[in-house]
Amino acid sequence: MKLSREFVRDGETVAVQVESIDGNRFRVRVGDNSYEYDARALADGGVRIQKLGDDSKGSVAYGAGSQQSYMLRVDGKTHTLEAPASRRGGGGGVSDGTVRAPMTGTVLEIMCKPGDMVEADQTLVVVSAMKMEHKLSAGVAGTVQSVATENGATVDQGAELVIVVPAES
Amino acid sequence: MAEQPPFQRVLVANRGEIAVRVMRGLRELGIESVAVHSDADEKCAHVLAADHVVALGGNTAAESYLDIDKVLAAAKSAGAQAIHPGYGFLSENSAFVRAVHEAGLVFIGPNADAMDRLGGKKAAREEAVAAGVSVIPGTEQDAGDEKLIEVAKQIGMPVMLKASAGGGGRGMRRVEREEDLAEALAAGRREARDSFGDDRMIVERAVFPARHIEIQFIADSHGHVVSLHERECSVQRRHQKVLEEAPSAVISEELRQQMGAAAIALAKRVGYDNAGTCEFLLDANDEFYFLEVNTRLQVEHPVTELVTGVDLVHLQLQVAAGGKLEELLAGHDLTPRGHSIEARICAESPEQGYIPAAGLLELVREAHGPGIRVDSGVYTGWEVPPFYDSMLAKLIVWAPNRAMACERLSQALGDTAYLGIPTNVDFLRRIVDDEAFRTAAISTDMLSQRPELAAGDSATGNPGAPDDHVLAAAVLCQALARQSGGGGGATSSGSTQGSTAVWQNLNGFRLFEVTR
Description:
The structure holds two protein chains of two kinds. Chain A is mainly β. Chain A is 0% helix and 56% strand. In chain A, the strands form three sheets. Chain A has an eight-stranded antiparallel beta sheet, with no helix packed on it. Chain A has a four-stranded antiparallel beta sheet with strand order 9-16-14-11, with no helix packed on it. A four-stranded antiparallel beta sheet of chain A has the order 13-12-10-15, with no helix packed on it. Chain A starts with a strand and ends with a strand. By secondary structure, chain B is an alpha+beta fold. Chain B has five domains: 100 residues, Rossmann fold (3-Layer(aba) Sandwich), CATH 3.40.50.20; 61 residues, ATP-grasp fold, A domain (Dna Ligase, domain 1, 2-Layer Sandwich), CATH 3.30.1490.20; 123 residues, ATP-grasp fold, B domain (D-amino Acid Aminotransferase, Chain A, domain 1); 117 residues, ATP-grasp fold, B domain (D-amino Acid Aminotransferase, Chain A, domain 1), CATH 3.30.470; 45 residues, no CATH class. In chain B, β15 and β16 form a beta hairpin. In chain B, α5 crosses α6 and α13 runs antiparallel to α14. Chain B is globular, with a radius of gyration of 24 Å. At the A-B interface, β1, β2, β3, β4 and β5 of A face β16, α13, α14 and α18 of B.
């Protein structure tokens, strides 16, 4: 049994390969490094892992998600691991100038109009969702091209609210 | 329970974890539970936990849990004798309380008049003053700049200027020096006018740094009120509680008695007759000031239960049925024992401005062990709907002392996994592991003063690049999930069988190495 995956770490693609040696033992290659692990699946969805050959402690890891974006919980910390070129729109972090609703909610206030020059972190729309107010900005400085919503509108997750044309730098 | 149950059937007009918790209490008293639910909540944990289920229809709170007519019709059709409102939704709505009575049912909570007298902030402040409870010194209305500045000087600097129509911190500012008052007032008026269309301002003493201390009390319909002592809820973000504990690390027995007496005086004054909480701000000189009364069971009630040994839901039901506290609590030592801390687990990203999340919980693993209680409203495979509060569950620990309770909570948070959508679990652990929290050096502005606690790794310039071990663990999880066809898969959503099949995969696996 063999499984290969790629993740983005510090902006670089890292190849990870798991190969069964025998029974519960696995060879794991992370980039140029090679490790041996003991790993056993648990019925509660977790995997007990222990690196062999040093005195590191074993732990139970829990993972879920897709190949593109995998959420892993191990040693009391949550990691969201992204595959290369898997950046998707909606939900922040993407600075293409389009402001999208982070989740289904209600538009409380639109604070810009077409033609406005705006800063990257300037609040353009305030959306209320799950009893919280969210101030949304474009993430890039530029000019507001269009506003695709109105005060009081109910918007779906990922809906385009404002489009900002990034300023020439 | 050998005794006659206080009711035969009770409708729980709420959802998620609190509805599950109330239903557990009902079952313990031999009472049947009735769940109500919106369309989105058809398979919510509280629906699964109930003996009887009535669909309300609709998705938003207004269409379902807040619709008084629908809730009352559900109670009638299910044959319930009483309604427990939980917290939020209709729990502090006196019109609902009256409607429940008019329908010939019992409301598990205070009477409507007491609720009205303590409901609005202004009304409650007046009742507190009349009951001899100290309130934050200040004006209640705007009599012009000159008068406000005069009052500010009387109170003594620093002061808080607040918009009377205010809320959410807008129009609010702290002023240190008398000579800055006029300018700050003008700026506050502008901001208040822009935000609320109302530029009236009030002035109050700045209680700073402040701790949030609240007294849990329970009252019966025979005029008895008992204090179940304090909870400290100083760790807050944007006026929402994050961690709560009992007892407070900074309250002397004398202060505990004083605050308890203040809460009891206020409850007696308004003829209160169920569970309630009186909230105070405590300053560095042990002076406490009335904030407000919450006329319902609170989110953080479990910490009081764990240190006093009472079951607040049982008591609520028993006093609502006419029970007497002196009998219900006879022989019960209410002195707080040990220490309890609660962490609110929410579907939100503190790392990204606390943005809430909805969606599929692919894998839920809740902590368990000695001194650990989880009041949960979710399970593996539950899709968190976007219409309601983002709280998923509460993790509550008890230990003989605060230091051990902190450590127990930290470990329990480490053992907790809610995968599929972002949660605040790592954030909670950062706070619990922080030196300030461990030494109880907390105040209501701790999180605003320490933004790095919310930001996590992304604040340190090192965005927490996963090390080789983490990447290895991820691919091992995916590989083994494929092999076993079980949960944790990269493509299959992690289904938990919850069976003893775990032992079949554990050949040669030593149990005592699981926890460390």
